[in-house]
Amino acid sequence: MAISLKSMRYFTCALSHGSISRAAEELNVAASAISAAIDQIEAQFQLKLVNRFRARGISATASGRALARKFAHLLEEYEAVLAEGSDLKHALTGSLRIGYYAPVAPAFLPEILSTLATTEAAPTIHLEECNNDRAQAGLLAGDFDAILFVPDAVPPQVDFEVLIEAPAYCLCSAAHPLAQQDAVDLRQLGGEPVIVLNRPVAVDYYRQLLEAAGQNPATLAYANSSEMVRSLVGAGHGCAILNMRPALDISYAGQALAARPIRDPLPSLSLAVGYDRSNPRRVVTRFVDACRAYFREGAGAALVVTGREPAPR
């Protein structure tokens, strides 16, 4: 039978006082519980560890003293581990591991993370761009402390909250005729070559939008990064349907782009933050709070195209 930490604590306290009753008083337990712990430990090792005297308390045998020292060391190590765990939970130091499936995350994640810089030592940030499934599996496996992802077919074990709803919009070159309109219809894309963001969830979502509208435009290219899509569009190769945009309507090559809302009633894509909501570390809570503030009160609204935003820069 294993010896519990409680039994070790009762044993060492009784030996340090030389009295079962005084140990019981200090630990606020019954004297019988102290006596039972001593009996259990003696039975486990099959050694006489304590001499009992009816009127004079107890004294340790040589074996008892040796064991009490080892127990005391184990209890000290245990308390140290608990203290370190408590510090980790409440500190902003240590590591923060974030997995993200968000093609334009570089447009907002650095600003969100800047709020973690305080007068305290800042955490070490580990960022991993991944697909939606990897993000969710990584959170459940403990690879990530938090994830940014599209909550599509989420398993019940993943706790998350939606940060923003991003409607689909049309991206075209600033020189394209569609850029002169306040908004576009999906039917107008029927005669345009389309650049498709070839990422899990996204590619099926865009295909379903066009099919539901009865449109089947020719696909010119598939690209698995939003910046390649934007650069191809900026160079005049075609249009694209996306959901979030960077702060500037300029491609990597410096070509001007135009983001136009789509008039058709279309389902949005959601961006969510996933984390252990039952018992999060302080740094995780701070990160989630920063995400909420950014998208609900801060600059995050500029990353979606709703038809109400100011003219593109």
From TrEMBL:
Keywords: DNA-binding, Transcription, Transcription regulation. The keyword Transcription regulation applies. InterPro entries: LysR_HTH_N (IPR000847), LysR_subst-bd (IPR005119), WH-like_DNA-bd_sf (IPR036388), WH_DNA-bd_sf (IPR036390). Pfam families: HTH_1, LysR_substrate. PROSITE patterns: HTH_LYSR. Residues 3-61 form the HTH lysR-type domain. Belongs to the LysR transcriptional regulatory family. This is LysR family transcriptional regulator. It comes from Roseobacter sinensis.
